[in-house]
Amino acid sequence: MTPTGFVKDADWLDWDSNPSVPRFTVPAGAVDAHCHVFGPGDIFPFAPERKYTPCDASWQQLFALRDMLRFEKNVVVQATCHGADNSAMLDVLARSDDRARGVATVNPDVTPAELARMHELGVRGVRFNYVKRLVDPKPDEYYRTIIDKIRPLGWHVVLYFEPSDLAEKWQFFSSLGVPIVVDHMGRPDVSRPLDNSEFGLFLRFMRENEQVWTKVSCPDRLSISGAPLYADVIPFAKTIVEEFPDRVLWGTDWPHPNMKKEMPDDGILVDYVPSIATTAALQSQLLVQNPNQLYWSN
Length: 298
What we know:
The chain is of the alpha/beta class. It has helices spanning 59-69, 87-94, 112-121, 140-150, 163-174, 197-208, 219-222, 234-243, 266-276, 280-296, and strands at residues 31-35, 73-77, 100-104, 123-129, 156-160, 180-182, 212-215, 248-249. It has one domain (31-296): Metal-dependent hydrolases (TIM Barrel). The chain contains ten helices and eight strands. Strands 1-2-3-4-5-6-7-8 form an eight-stranded parallel β-sheet, with helices on both faces.
């Protein structure tokens, strides 16, 4: 047991403390648009209702990785292990010298004053998680109450779901009336052909809803063929980048929560980017223009 009283899960894989230096040089102004912090648990305790207990992963370690990978900025997404206590994420923003933005998790009873403080620190969105092994999703009205409160701030909603969730929640997701960012392409099954019906539904969702963006991130979570190429994920991500170049984002997902087989090398993940954004123009949109527009323009 650590001094914090928190014991990480027995099968927990710690993040790679010595990742490789990427061969690919990201363009100036690049943003890692999906990452997290965990604790440290003795300062920012984990939520009682959490479904996993991680290792610590601090702001110092996040910023060190940012600099090593040659990114300029981060978007820090509230980790589910912290529930709706955003203290650890907000602490990162406060220390970032305007080089970080945040995505929070809030409850319907969040006050305008709390939201205003988060906005001042750099929060620009809230996350709704539908992945049932990580959280217990709430009824639609729970989320609508939150959206009504964040809409005046110009925030967006980040959705984390799996393919079956999109089919079930299509009408609700299409009716939110605010920009949406979907995590990790809606987790397509890359063992299936590119033209499979589930991925086709996701493409249709983006085509029919011009406020929908997606992160073409986490090949390590989706791939069956594995590192270093993640070759089976490339056709899916490349299709999205090329059809929706102004609505895609990318991030490392550091410190890679709930990986069960192996921990990815963050340098290799950066080197994956040119395989899905194959021109300098697409790379600039993916890593610089799009995240800066979404997170630093208001």
